[in-house]
UniProtKB/TrEMBL annotation:
The lineage of its organism: Bacteria, Bacillati, Cyanobacteriota, Cyanophyceae, Oscillatoriophycideae. It comes from Planktothricoides raciborskii FACHB-1370. It is an enzyme of class 2 (transferase). HAMAP family: KptA. Keywords: NAD, Transferase. This is Probable RNA 2'-phosphotransferase.
Length: 188
């Protein structure tokens, strides 16, 4: 399948499986799952037909592994990033010492005052790699990266979760655990 078709399907799925399932007449179950057959039928009715093979390819090849099938392959969900109410039923796991959050330079003052907030999503998203955080920040403007003292947060009892695609999730990061990374331009 052509890369552009893959991206187009991924965006369509992200929108409906994270934010607006009702636009397709779908309801996600508590874990965020929806039956594959219902999804494909609803997409076709919506004028955006996706074949079963294309769906398989998107789940397998998506650059960030944004979607998963359940063990029966009968259901699909987005791995993270929801704004609708879902409980991904992730278990808390011990984080690495440092995690990273990329954002826009224009958000720095506010973040240093209020800490990182989850905004419209369910969690604050953190990365284990600086380069990934930088890319996330670039989506918002001139990028900056915060270093999160995950070890100190863990020691104080903040739970950390990791989505099936390796994104680290927390409820919030108070300012005392944040430090701006210097010399980001050297990171590629
Ligand atoms: C910012 C993508 C001002 C926060 C990525 C971010 C990620 C504050 C924005 C995933 C703030 C929310 C999530 C405060 C937080 N004051 N700004 N106190 N607290 N913010 O898109 O982390 O491609 O909801 O820094 O790869 O950018 O969709 O979060 O800039 O993993 O799969 O508020 O989305 O994945 O923006 O991105 P977002 P995010 P996908």
């Amino acid at each position: 399948m052509h890369q552009s078709r893959l991206v187009k399907i991924s965006k369509y799925l992200s929108y409906h499986l994270r934010h607006q399932p009702e636009k397709l007449g779908l309801t996600l179950d508590v874990g965020g799952w929806v039956p594959v057959e219902m999804l494909l039928a609803a997409a076709a009715k919506d004028g955006f037909p996706i074949s079963a093979d294309e769906l398989q390819a998107v789940v397998a090849k998506n650059d960030k592994k944004r979607f998963s099938f359940d063990e029966t392959k009968g259901k699909i969900r987005a791995n993270q990033g929801h704004s609708v109410a879902v409980d991904l039923q992730l278990a808390a796991v011990k984080p690495p010492e440092k995690l990273y959050h990329g954002t826009a330079a224009s958000a720095v003052d506010s973040i240093l005052k209020q800490g990182l907030q989850k905004m419209s999503r369910h969690h604050v998203h953190l990365s284990a790699e600086i380069a990934i955080a930088k890319k996330v920040g670039e989506r918002h403007g001139r990028p900056v990266v915060f270093i999160v003292d995950a070890a100190a947060m863990d020691a104080q009892g903040y739970p950390f979760y990791r989505s099936d695609n390796g994104v680290w999730l927390v409820d919030k990061v108070p300012p005392e655990f944040l430090q701006l990374l210097q010399q980001l331009q050297q990171i590629t």
